[in-house]
Amino acid sequence: xxxVKLHHLSFSxxxxxxxxxxxxxxxxxxxxxxxxxxxxxxxKNRIIHLTDGPRNQLNxxxxxxxxLDILRDxxxxxxxxxxxxxxxxxxxFGEEAYTLIDPDGNKIVFGxxxxxxxxxxxxxxxxxxxxVGSPNVEPMIDHYTKGVGFIISDIVRREDGTxxxxxxxxxxxxxxxxxxxxxxxxxxHNCYETENWNDIRDWADHFSKSRITLWWGPGRHGPGDNxxxxxxxxxxxxVELSAEIEIVGADREMGTWLHEERTLNxxxxxxxxxx
Length: 275
Description:
By secondary structure, this protein is of the alpha/beta class. It has helices at 16-25, 68-80, 137-148, 197-209, 261-264, and strands at residues 5-13, 30-35, 38-43, 46-52, 57-65, 86-87, 98-101, 107-112, 126-134, 151-157, 163-169, 177-181, 186-193, 216-220, 227-232, 238-243, 255-258. Strands 14-15-16-13-9-12-11-10-17 form a nine-stranded mixed sheet.
């Protein structure tokens, strides 16, 4: 197992001011950096880097290793796998960070994990996973499992066997990365893990005060078994608040689920990306 966690995300937007306002006022983050290369916002254990550009596009996802020895071992493993190692674009990680590029052109950056400081008390919401949409699901799975070293926790198939989504882990949590079948390469959603059901309630109340509607949930996913709901940021990116995600044992076998609404939500309507 890689023993890395999602540390921060960078995505582009064509309405930078509106996005900064959302992640500051609604997600409880604070501006800690601004310049020609965008705006960095953070709260405790969640960091977003926003840049000017087309909306719904992931610039990179930053995964952090707990110490330098593990990061160096990881880089050696990636070099031995024949992956191309590129410099890091991250303004958050240090000079030891490096980049891999997947078949869809998404950049995954590996660096050293550090807890982000908390300028003032905010509601809990640790950055936990990112999901991308792809028309090339099987090549993406091969890249992330055979090359990068992620492990499949659960896979979702149509009745004809076509894979429509795959949930992959990089530590003991059920997934820190997933890919969903889509007709275009895009950012599907980013997720923040809270501590319990009461936090889910409190976040929902928080959004309600700003008249932001929960467009999906509350519910419980099949893969991951986590409680969740989703809202949208100004660009239409889905933002998920989650709790109680499955902790996976080393001997857990890969699960297979049917492509149907109940797989994505035990409690009600599921949001299928494709038929």
